[in-house]
Amino acid sequence: MTVIRTENLTKIFERGKKHEVTALDSVGLDIPRGEVFGLLGPNGAGKTTLIRILVGLLTPTEGSAHVLDRDVTEDIGYIRERVALLPQEAGIYERLTARENMIYYGGMYGIPEDVLNERADNLLDLVGLREKEDYQVKGFSGGMKRKVLVARALIIEPEIIFLDEPTTGVDTIGARVVRSLLRKLSAERDQTIILTTHDLNEVSELCHRVGILYDGRLVAIGQPSELEEKYRAANLEEVFTGLVTGEGVYEE
Ligand SMILES: Nc1ncnc2c1ncn2[C@@H]1O[C@H](COP(=O)(O)OP(=O)(O)OP(=O)(O)O)[C@@H](O)[C@H]1O
Ligand SMILES: [Mg+2]
Question: What architecture (CATH level 2) is domain 2-245?
Answer without folding.
Answer: 3-Layer(aba) Sandwich (3.40)
